[in-house]
Amino acid sequence: MIIFQPELKSMVLKHIDIRAFLADEADTYKAIRLMALETNPEAFGSTAESERARGIEYFESKVKTGRVFGGFEGGRCIGMAGYYPLEGEKFAHKAVLWGVFVAPGYRGRSVASLLVRAVLRRACTEVEVINLSVVANNAAAIAVYGQLGFRAYGTEPKALKLGSVYVDEILMSCDLSETMPA
Questions:
Q1: Are 20 and 69 in contact, with CB atoms under 8 Å apart?
Q2: Contact 145, 134 (CB under 8 A)
Q3: CA angle (21 as vertex; 151, 4 as ends), nearest 5
Q4: CA dihedral (157, 40, 101, 68) positive or negative
Q5: Bridge pairing between strands 129-135 and 76-85
Q6: 109-124 per-residue burial string, b: 16 or more CB within 10 A, e: under 16
Q7: pLDDT of residue 178
Q8: For 57-85, what is each residue's pLDDT tens digit?
Q9: Is residue 93, in this structure, part of any structural domain at all?
Q10: Does any domain span residue 182?
Q11: Structure letter (DSSP) for residue 29
Q12: pLDDT score at 118
């Protein structure tokens, strides 16, 4: 059962808490971000090496926006997802969903869905459309996004390159004025 408590800005599924990272949780955010980049380097545009080299101020600036969410079990961060609005008058109605990750031992428990739902609830207060890109061979993620109202609108061939291996990405979009998950 999902309980949404806006006053707490939190959702609870059994013992998993989904909420925006707090301003003093930059270290926690950095740790889950590095885990994501080390566990699934093919799924992200950044690398663990480049993120590890960033100062804590970078991670503090991300969590202070209130746009980066974590999934927590017993105080341990087990997943993350974030978004950022686009800049410019003609793009200000859109945002990008990024960094969706769930630690391997917690996959298949709807954590990714809950994280993205939390992002969508927050994003709909700022923008009308949210876009994402997902590696083409990640069928589980594509299915989750589809269930949440995202629709594929294209493929970017060779979107990422890991050494000599190219990875295509599926481009997806969700119109928040038409689709808002419960």
A1: yes
A2: yes
A3: 65
A4: negative
A5: unpaired
A6: bbbbbbbbbbbbbbbb
A7: 83
A8: 999 999 999 999 999 999 899 999 999 99
A9: yes
A10: no
A11: H
A12: 95
Assign residue 148 the CATH number of its domain.
3.40.630.30
Q: Is residue 31 part of a domain?
A: yes
Report pLDDT for 80: 98
pLDDT tens readout for residues 27-47 = 999 999 999 999 999 999 999
Positions in the chain short of pLDDT 70: 1-14, 180-182
Q: Tokens at residue 147, please?
A: 């269930």
Residue with tokens 């080299």: 53
Of 75, 85, 83, the C-alpha closest to 31 is: 75
Determine the 3-state secondary structure of 148 from DSSP: coil
Q: Could you tell me the two tokens for 156?
A: 């970017």
- pLDDT of the residue at 181: 58
Q: How many domains does the chain have?
A: 1
Integer Cα distance of 62 and 12 in angstroms: 23
What residue numbers bound the domain in which 60 lies? 2-175
Query: Is residue 181 situated within a structural domain?
Result: no
User: How far apart (Å, rounded) are the C-alpha atoms in residues 151 and 173?
Assistant: 5
Residue 182 confidence (pLDDT):
57
